[in-house]
Amino acid sequence: MKDQVLIAGAGPVGLTMALELARYGVPVRVIDKIPEATHTSRAVAVWPRTLELLDRSGAAADIIAVGNKVTVANILSGGRPVASFALDALPSPYPFALMVPQYETEAVLRRHLAGHGVKPDLGVELLGFEQDGDGLSARLREPDGTERSEPYAFLVACDGAHSMVRHCLGLDFQGDTLGLDWTQGDFHLSGYPFPSSQMAIFWHEDGPLLFFPMAPDRARIITSLGPSTATPPVPLDQDAFQKMIDARGPGGIALTGTEWVSAFRINERQVENYRSGRVFLAGDAAHIHSPAGGQGMNTGMQDAINLAWKLALVIRGIGTAPALLDSYDLERRPVGALVIAASGRMTRIGTLADHTLQHVRDFVAHILMGLSPVQRALTGLMAEVSIGYPDSPLNGPFRGEATAGSRVRPVAGEVPFGSGDTPLFIACGGAGAAELAARFPRLVAASPRSDGGTFLSLVRPDGYFAAQVEEADWQALVPYLQQIGAER
Ligand SMILES: Cc1cc2nc3c(=O)[nH]c(=O)nc-3n(C[C@H](O)[C@H](O)[C@H](O)COP(=O)(O)OP(=O)(O)OC[C@H]3O[C@@H](n4cnc5c(N)ncnc54)[C@H](O)[C@@H]3O)c2cc1C
Fold first, then answer.
1. Which residues span the domain enclosing 26?
2. What residue stretches are annotated with the FAD-binding domain (predicted)?
3. Which of 243, 318, 394, 447 has its CA 20 to 30 A from that of 101?
4. Which residue among 30, 42, 339 has the greatest number of ligand 1 atoms within 8 angstroms of its CB, and so is best to mutate?
């Protein structure tokens, strides 16, 4: 089908993309070359902004039901507390980091996708593609080995860190590989010195040890192995992990079972452009970085949510502005760069090798991380609730108090922006909002929800401020909306 979107890759990002497009009524085909869904744990943290955005499709509650809520993040060094971050102070209806194995997150997304009549086609591999101004032809290998070409309107590459789409486009994946090897695993354990609602990072002179509790007796544990050598890193088995924990941890923790172990090196890379014509890159295909902070999957899922409503508006013939699709790269590439820089900084601070610098770090971190503004800034960044699009070409006039492109804080119990089966801008206000909705019925819905002030806010389908003017000045938003799309 020429108006169909092909999504290459049914990982968390491809599934999120498919779910968002499907609920907006866009025909999608989501394929994955693997014959069946993977059951490795991989990404373990789902952060508040991701949950806020997944609430629009109804998936957030089901993911929360299978996860463990972490409300405190502790940092210790040499057995002494350095800092403690209260995540339950985050300005979100979901003030916690949810610990849940990636396969559970994916299972929930697949279930919700099935609710819209879409099932990923597994065992189908994208071999190549060609595009022109009218569409795109994708060469696919079906599970029985036959190869054929199919027409699509757009291709979204959610095909992971080794993205074949990125290679086909000849796009650089600029960046570096850091020089340390790491190992991680999901273990059953006893003797963890914190409640399961608290995660802990133990800085140690030989390397950090991180605990992400998934249940009272189960945790993701990550530790560094030392400088990389010519051979690929090998995961530690349970006995070797136990020795590391005894050496670097607080003492008294006993591993009682292993679910999964892996070893990895940290790459910090980002593609030079998230779009090439009718092809968009999202998730690990576009950016990879340190797992410190567990931001990889979250950032990728938010890429998908950013792109989906824009594609839906264009495919449904409502959105006409070239800036709509152009804005995807302009908005999401800076976010990817920010996440790479922040997670890299955290990793480098945690792996300082020089003993004198370690003492300075502990001292400075203790002072700085005890300050409320620093706490707010760091937790806001991790939770991705402070991320916005201040330089977006989609930002309209801002004459009120809101910062251009900033996140609209969802209110617990209220229907989130962007729910429903059409990607509508929400005009929050009074008579002016109603006028806009009447004039742009396919693009705008009015909502009486407001902060009680005198401003009329226009909120994007993904819950960021698009514009804000005085209520009496509502006509100032007409040229803005005329640029975005159709009046009728
Ligand atoms: C061992 C491991 C541990 C990890 N641990 C963490 C962690 O602790 N915390 C964290 O935040 N992140 C972690 N990650 C990263 C996290 O898993 C990724 O950020 C996340 O999976 C990205 O999702 P994605 O959908 O972009 O890509 P992926 O999950 O990689 O999915 C890409 C999919 O595309 C498919 N595909 C590839 N090429 C084609 C093709 N040509 N045709 C069809 N299908 C194709 C693949 O089979 C795959 O299923 C880990 C990753 C790995 C590998």
1. 5-44+101-171+272-351
2. 4-341
3. 243
4. 42
